[in-house]
Every structure is written in C-alpha cells, then in structure tokens.
Amino acid sequence: MNRTFVAIKPDGVKRGLIGNIIRRIEHKGYKIVGLKMLQPTLEIAEQHYAEHKGKPFYQSLINYITSGPIVAMVVEGKNVIEGMRHMMGSTVPNDAQVGTIRADFAQTKECNTIHGSDCCESAEREINIYFKPEELCEGWKTMMEYVWESMPEES
C-alpha cells in the first residue's frame, strides 16, 4: 500500500465539490486515512510550495492556496499516487482527459480544483506538512482490501 497527499483546493471547496470528489476517491477503492478542512496559513503555503520559491508564479500559488479553506486528505491504496494523478487529470483542465476531476470541474490551470502529490517523496513531505501522525486513522480495512486478500498472488 502506498499513501499520497490530496487537497481539494479553495475553488473546489467554495463551489461545493467536496462530496463529489471524495465520492470518486472512495468509489475507486482508495482509503482515506486522514481528512480535515483547514485554512492554510502563509507558513503552511510556503512549506507546501517551497520547491517553487523564486519562480514567477510562486506568489500567485501562495495567494491562491491561502484564499480560502482546503480539504486535506491522506489517501491510501495500491499505486495510489499514479492512480490519483490519473483521476485528477492534466493541470490544464482543457487538456485533461474527459471524466477526470479537472476535466469535469476545473476551468483554469490556476484554479484547477485539486492537488495530488507527484511522487513518494513529495507525498511524504506534504503529508507531514498537513498532518501529525496521531491524526491518521490506521488499522482498518476497506472492502477493497478484503477483495485483494482473497485474490491469488500475481506471478
């Protein structure tokens, strides 16, 4: 099992898309082990976007992510990083594959509704920015995990 960080961005929260997005994550069979709504502070935003500091778009990222509440999640599942990125679609909504979250809900690259970590290292770093270990609910199984346990091993 892998974990990733996912955030419904301020435009998604303000437009009332929280339930629709969480439904898609759960219907995919992924397990949400951490979930909270928060207003990102400047400090959190700067930590989150640290790798972009000095780039021309850095300040607009900071302004956007601090413009309203977000829903932060830790999502777990097989190949979850790649799977979530596929579900989210291209960061440019008009380039996103039909049926992805961004194709269905976002209108601009700047306000593209959802964020997901792009690799294991980013996932770990981002999870640690938004969650303390004791805020994660572990040790329970989804129905999908029971299904995987009953399947024969891949050769």
Order of strands side by side in the largest beta sheet? 2-3-1-4
CATH homology superfamily? Nucleoside diphosphate kinase-like domain
Mean pLDDT: 93
Percent helix among the residues? 40-55%
Low-pLDDT windows of residues:
none
The CATH architecture? 2-Layer Sandwich
Q: Radius of gyration in whole Å, from Cα?
A: 16 Å
Structure summary:
By secondary structure, the protein is α+β, with helices and mostly antiparallel strands.
Describe this entry's structure for a reader:
- The chain is globular, with a radius of gyration of 16 Å.
- The protein has a 4-stranded antiparallel beta sheet with strand order 2-3-1-4.
- The chain starts with a strand and ends in a 5-residue tail after the last helix.
- It has helices at residues 10-14, 18-28, 42-48, 58-65, 80-88, 101-105, 120-130, 143-150; strands at residues 2-8, 31-38, 70-77, 114-116.
- The protein is built from 8 helices and 4 strands; from the N terminus they run βααβααβααβαα.
- It is an alpha+beta fold and 155 residues long.
- The protein has one domain: Nucleoside diphosphate kinase-like domain (Alpha-Beta Plaits).
Topology at a glance:
Blueprint: E1 2-8, H1 10-14, H2 18-28, E2 31-38, H3 42-48, H4 58-65, E3 70-77, H5 80-88, H6 101-105, E4 114-116, H7 120-130, H8 143-150
Antiparallel strand pairs: 1-3, 1-4, 2-3
List the defining traits of the structure above:
155 residues, four-stranded antiparallel β-sheet, 41% helix, globular
